[in-house]
Amino acid sequence: MNVFANTVVTLNFKLFDAQNKLIEETDEPIAYLHGGHSGIFPKVEESINGKGPGDKVSVTLEPDDAFGEYDANLIRIEPLASLPPDLAVGGYLSAEKDGQEQVFRVTNIADGSAVLDGNHELAGQRLRFDATIVDVRPATQEEITHGHVHGAHGHHH
């Protein structure tokens, strides 16, 4: 079976930065619901469309195709007194703004303040996404309704 809208695609992937350094790779295959359900980067999904098990793709992702451009307006400096006491560099905090959750990474702690960065760690970077399709199957009606994969390698309720 080939990949088309409302199929469940199982794949292995490797993600590289612009210097060809491996950032992340799968230990186990992942599965996502194909067809604009936000399960994978749209440019990757487009490259996988029509492919089948065993096929490989390699996609260069510009920042706008992946985690967006780096936005200096998402940097905040907050007094340590207003933050959790177990705060550490490399840790994460979440805050709600206008009903949306915003996640901040702690990038520095000094002089009684913490620097919080609301950008994704890979924002502003060109990436390469290499994938091998392991399996393709029709999605169940429940998966289509929920907009994500259920069962092995997917979401469990």
Q: State the order of secondary-structure elements, H for helix, E for strand.
A: EEEHEEEEEEH
* CATH fold-type name of the largest domain: Chitinase A, domain 3
Give the mean pLDDT: 93
Could you tell me the strand content as a percent range? 35-45%
Unreliable spans? none
Label the CATH architecture of the largest domain: Roll
Distance linking N and C termini:
27 Å
Question: What Rg do the Cα atoms give?
Answer: 19 Å
Overall helicity: under 10%
Main beta-sheet annotation: 5 strands, antiparallel
Structural class label: mainly beta
Number of helices: 2
User: Any idea what the shape is?
Assistant: elongated
Total count of domains: 2
CATH class of the largest domain equals Alpha Beta
Number of strands: 9
What does this structure look like?
The chain is mainly beta. It contains two helices and nine strands, in the order βββαββββββα. The protein folds into two domains: 7-67 and 124-146, Chitinase A, domain 3 (Roll), CATH 3.10.50; 72-117, Thrombin, subunit H (Beta Barrel), CATH 2.40.10.330. 8% of the residues lie in helices and 41% in strands. The strands form two sheets. Strands 1, 2, 3, 4 and 9 form a five-stranded antiparallel beta sheet that branches. It has a four-stranded antiparallel beta sheet with strand order 5-8-7-6, with no helix packed on it. A hairpin with a 2-residue loop joins strand 7 and strand 8. It is elongated.
